[in-house]
């Protein structure tokens, strides 16, 4: 079964940093494009970042450019999102998903709360 | 690419049809001949689940009361006869250039 499990969500103060992880299983992670999508409380889905299999291509939504870094470790079947200079409006559930244009599967999400 | 859904909310009686529109700011037709428009449903407390891929291909296990249509920049998701389990928020998403979601359409069952 294809599965993604996110972790690392936490309460953090504005200006702080946090690193999210996503563990993949059941599919060829090393050859898969991967994407992070977030959802603020009561709001819609927002694409955050995408990475290709060898990390040579990384794309970000404008609002996180320069603050967030997407990366991966194919040997560990893991995807990461390093988030720096966090703002209150980064508060969201963060989902990782395999990106074959179709986003599937999705993890269960991990909650990041930015608040003082 | 900006994705615009209408309506943003819908209240439907079980057994009645429902329709959601999604418009993209530019054509989602790729040079490979495919149109990269997807429909997802997010039920309360759950991750999004795929319903329709590439405009009209119903995903495995999705009931045939769901159908997708459209081309270019205009797309529609139709539910022929709404059931109670169809409640949730429906999103269209473009997969042509990075990824963008519509605002979501909340479907409530009367």
Task: Give the structure's gist in a few sentences.
The complex is a heterodimer of chains A (116) and B (110). By secondary structure, chain A is mainly beta.
Written overview of the protein:
The complex is a heterodimer of chains A (116) and B (110). Chain A has strands at residues 3-7, 11-12, 18-25, 34-39, 45-51, 58-60, 68-73, 78-83, 92-100, 102-106, 110-114. By secondary structure, chain A is mostly beta strands. In chain A, the strands form two sheets. In chain A, strands 2, 4, 5, 6, 9, 10 and 11 form a seven-stranded mixed sheet that branches. A four-stranded antiparallel sheet of chain A has the order 1-3-8-7, with no helix packed on it. The mean pLDDT of chain A is 97. By secondary structure, chain B is mainly β. The model of chain B has no long low-confidence stretch (mean pLDDT 97). Classes of the chains: A mainly beta (116), B mainly beta (110). The interface between A and B is medium-sized, with 18 and 21 residues.
Q: What percent of residues of chain B adopt helix (DSSP H or I)? A: under 10%
Q: Strand tally of chain B, please?
A: 11
Q: Biggest interface between protein chains, with counts per chain? A: A-B, 18 and 21 residues
What value does the average pLDDT of chain B take? 97
DSSP helical segment count of chain B: 0
Q: Please, how many helices of chain A?
A: 0
User: Unreliable runs of chain B, pLDDT <50, ≥5 residues?
Assistant: none
Range of helix content of chain A: under 10%
Please state roughly what percent of the residues of chain A sit in beta strands, choosing from under 5%, 5-15%, 15-25%, 25-35%, 35-45% or over 45%.
over 45%
Molecular shape of chain A: globular
Gyration radius of chain B, rounded:
13 Å
Query: What Rg of chain A is obtained from the alpha carbons, in whole angstroms?
Result: 13 Å
Q: How much strand of chain B? A: over 45%
Elements of chain B, N to C (H/E): EEEEEEEEEEE
- Average pLDDT metric of chain A: 97
């Amino acid at each position: 079964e294809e599965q993604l499990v996110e972790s690392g969500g936490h309460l953090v103060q504005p200006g702080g940093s946090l690193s999210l992880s996503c563990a993949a299983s059941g599919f060829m992670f090393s050859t898969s494009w991967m994407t992070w999508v977030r959802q603020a409380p009561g709001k819609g889905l927002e694409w955050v970042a995408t990475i290709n299999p060898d990390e040579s291509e990384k794309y970000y939504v404008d609002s996180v450019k320069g603050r967030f870094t997407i990366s991966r470790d194919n040997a560990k079947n893991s995807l990461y999102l390093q988030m720096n200079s966090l703002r209150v409006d980064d508060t969201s559930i963060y989902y990782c998903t395999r990106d074959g244009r179709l986003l599937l599967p999705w993890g269960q999400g991990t909650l990041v709360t930015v608040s003082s | 690419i900006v994705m615009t859904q209408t309506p943003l909310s819908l209240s439907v009686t079980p057994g009645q049809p429902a329709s959601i529109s999604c418009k993209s700011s530019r054509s989602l037709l790729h040079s490979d001949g495919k149109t990269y428009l997807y429909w997802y449903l997010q039920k309360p407390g759950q991750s999004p689940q795929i319903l329709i891929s590439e405009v009209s291909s119903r995903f495995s296990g999705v009931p045939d009361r769901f159908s997708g249509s459209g081309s270019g920049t205009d797309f529609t998701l139709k539910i022929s006869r709404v059931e109670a389990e169809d409640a949730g928020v429906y999103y269209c998403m473009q997969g042509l250039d990075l990824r963008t979601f519509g605002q979501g359409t909340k479907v409530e069952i009367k």
